[in-house]
Design a protein that fits this description.
By secondary structure, this protein is of the alpha+beta class. The protein folds into two domains: about 130 residues, Jelly Rolls, CATH 2.60.120.10; about 80 residues, Winged helix-like DNA-binding domain superfamily/Winged helix DNA-binding domain (Arc Repressor Mutant, subunit A, Orthogonal Bundle). Helix 1 crosses helix 3 and helix 3 packs antiparallel against helix 4. The radius of gyration is 19 Å and the shape is globular. The N and C termini lie far apart (about 65 Å).
Length: about 230
């Protein structure tokens, strides 16, 4: 259990947050909508998506139990993403007033919240960049994202679920996982994925992000030849 899950479970037990149960396919908030607060998920799953410049919806994350979502909506700021339940889900809604009351009683709550927000902003930026990347990088980033959010080196997730999350087939997932295992980045144990070398996984992703950044700069700086 990571710090966010541990802390927020205790806050809920103290009576903070408004319990809400939503059916499958319920939109919790839309990208650009004025924020009214944020949520803590205790049961179910929520899909996080963004609208591309071309107007297409692109899934960038799936929130699982024990995670916060919609942190950007604090203090009436606009939500940066759209959130929709993928199954019947139980969440606790924290309005600005509720969160301020929580922080007054337990000041450390603001630190936990801020750390989560900083991490989410970084992961959001990375997820948007990697949307159109080859499946190998999308999978590597998803595994790294799970590690960042849970703090666990041993990930309990099926290959079918991974395929669902990054939008590819289970066969492709299996092939990529075997490649990552051969590189010494992971080890497959039954249905678990053991992360062996976080530093190398970070280096692999940083190299991709760096090359993507250079590519974008070239697109904006190269001018057509004079006629």
């Amino acid at each position: 259990m990571n710090e966010i899950t541990h802390r927020w479970n205790s806050y809920v037990l103290k009576g903070y947050g408004e319990k809400k149960v939503f059916n499958k396919n319920k939109v919790l908030f839309h990208q650009g909508e004025t924020g009214k607060g944020f949520y803590y998920l205790t049961e179910g799953e929520v899909k996080i998506s963004v609208i591309s410049n071309e107007g297409h919806e692109r899934t960038i994350d799936y929130v699982r139990q024990g995670e916060l979502l919609g942190e950007q909506g604090f203090m009436n700021a606009p939500y940066a993403t759209t959130a929709k339940t993928t199954t019947t889900s139980t969440l606790y809604f924290f309005s600005d007033q509720t969160f301020n009351s929580l922080c007054s009683e337990i000041p450390e709550a603001s630190i936990v919240f801020t750390n989560s927000l900083i991490m989410k902003v970084r992961l959001l930026a990375e997820s948007i960049v990697i949307i159109n990347a080859p499946a190998e990088y999308r999978l590597a980033h998803f595994l790294y994202k799970l590690y960042r959010k849970t703090g666990e080196h041993n990930l309990k997730i099926s290959q079918i679920a991974l395929g669902h999350f990054i939008g590819t087939s289970r066969i492709t997932i299996y092939k990529i996982l075997k490649q990552l295992e051969q590189k010494g980045l992971i080890e497959l144990k039954n249905r678990d994925i053991q992360l062996l070398n976080i530093e190398e996984l970070e280096s692999m992703l940083n190299l991709f992000f760096h090359s993507s950044s250079l590519s974008e700069k070239q697109k904006t700086t190269i001018k057509p030849p004079a006629i």
